[in-house]
């Protein structure tokens, strides 16, 4: 159980910068990223696509009887988009009067079970459940903070709103209240996480370059001169500005000081807060960098962090796994596929490879 809170946090939309000057290059970059999101997915949908009812029937046959046909489960759920999986869930419930998620949970086991259940779960509900798990572990380590930052920063603003709604529906409390009440996260990290999960970033594409230059200077003042990346201005800027506006600010920062903000955060602070602030910046501006790092981290070392590996691949296969694979190859001189094959096995490996796609 998460500790009760004494005070309700009130969600207020962040103030928007005045749009007095437009940065056409930043707009084009943002539009390009949005337009390429579908193109960067790695879900290999067959042609023609069977109807949801036909897929539901195949899944039903795969989980009935003495044994489970895991190959059929991988072939269907691993080769359908999130929207198609939602239609299959509804068709399955309508035809067989039971939950597909409950059936998968009861028929499967281990890491394969978790991957398939997460894959079949509606994305907002999935992230709400994962956020609850991260808070419930009460470790307060980087991995638990990752989950909250990914949900807050690596998806569209409407997705975070849907996650908050699903979280309240599932757990009877608000996500921001539970983050604020979680004793595992200490200040100033807790303040950053609360600000991120309660934010709503306007989808406005216009950029105010005067604001970008001003806020780049404010970031530099906090990080380079005062060596306080946890300052209030830093949290405000990172947790409220639209992605195009923040991207412009970070470009101004580099132009003014000759280094990326994440390089300076690493140089001037080794705190957990600074590490998580860097992750937030990555998730907001270049999420492929973060998720490539998560996959690599989950595979390196004596044991595999299957939870992190599963979350990264399941959550990004519909979005930008192609970009993640490119980043992974450049940075680590190997492929996601080779590392997954080398560190996993069985049907768990098969579903991950289906989602990663060909390399």
UniProtKB/TrEMBL annotation:
UniProt entry keywords in alphabetical sequence: Annexin, Calcium, Calcium/phospholipid-binding, Metal-binding, Repeat
Region (Disordered): 1-54
GO biological process, any: response to heat
Binding site for Ca(2+) 1: 65, 67, 107, 299, 341, 343-344
SMART domains, per the entry: ANX (SM00335)
CC terms in the record's Gene Ontology section: cytoplasm; plasma membrane
Comp. bias (Low complexity): 1-11, 19-29
Matches recorded under SUPFAM superfamilies: Annexin
Family label: Belongs to the annexin family.
Protein name, UniProt field: Annexin
């Amino acid at each position: 159980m998460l500790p009760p809170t004494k005070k309700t946090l009130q969600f207020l939309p962040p103030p928007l910068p005045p749009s007095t000057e437009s940065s056409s290059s930043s707009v084009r970059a943002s539009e390009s990223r949005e337009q390429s999101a579908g193109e960067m997915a790695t879900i290999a949908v067959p042609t023609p696509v069977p109807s949801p009812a036909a897929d539901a029937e195949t899944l039903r046959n795969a989980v009935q009887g003495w044994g489970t046909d895991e190959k059929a489960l991988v072939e269907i759920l691993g080769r359908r988009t999130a929207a198609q999986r939602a239609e299959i869930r509804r068709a399955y419930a309508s035809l067989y009067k039971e939950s597909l998620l409950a059936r998968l949970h009861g028929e499967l086991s281990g890491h394969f079970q978790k991957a398939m259940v997460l894959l079949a779960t509606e994305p907002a509900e999935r992230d709400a459940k994962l956020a609850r798990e991260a808070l419930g572990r009460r470790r307060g380590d980087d991995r638990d903070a990752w989950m909250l930052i990914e949900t807050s920063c690596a998806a569209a603003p409407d997705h975070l709103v849907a996650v908050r709604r699903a979280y309240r529906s599932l757990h009877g409390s608000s996500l921001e209240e539970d983050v604020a009440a979680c004793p595992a996260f200490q200040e100033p990290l807790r303040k950053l996480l609360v600000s991120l999960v309660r934010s709503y970033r306007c989808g406005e594409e216009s950029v105010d370059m005067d604001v970008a230059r001003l806020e780049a200077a404010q970031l530099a003042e906090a990080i380079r001169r005062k060596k306080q990346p946890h300052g209030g201005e830093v949290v405000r800027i990172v947790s409220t500005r639209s992605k195009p506006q923040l991207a412009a600010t970070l470009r101004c920062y580099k132009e003014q000081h000759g280094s990326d903000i994440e390089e300076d955060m690493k140089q001037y602070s080794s705190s957990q807060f600074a590490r998580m602030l860097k992750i937030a910046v990555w998730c907001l501006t270049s999420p492929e960098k973060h998720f490539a790092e998560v996959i690599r981290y989950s595979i390196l070392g004596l044991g595999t962090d299957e939870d992190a590996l599963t979350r990264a691949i399941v959550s990004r296969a519909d979005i930008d796994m192609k970009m993640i694979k490119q980043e992974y190859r450049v940075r680590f001189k190997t492929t996601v596929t080779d590392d997954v094959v080398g560190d996993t096995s069985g049907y768990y490996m098969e579903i991950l490879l289906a989602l990663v796609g060909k390399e």
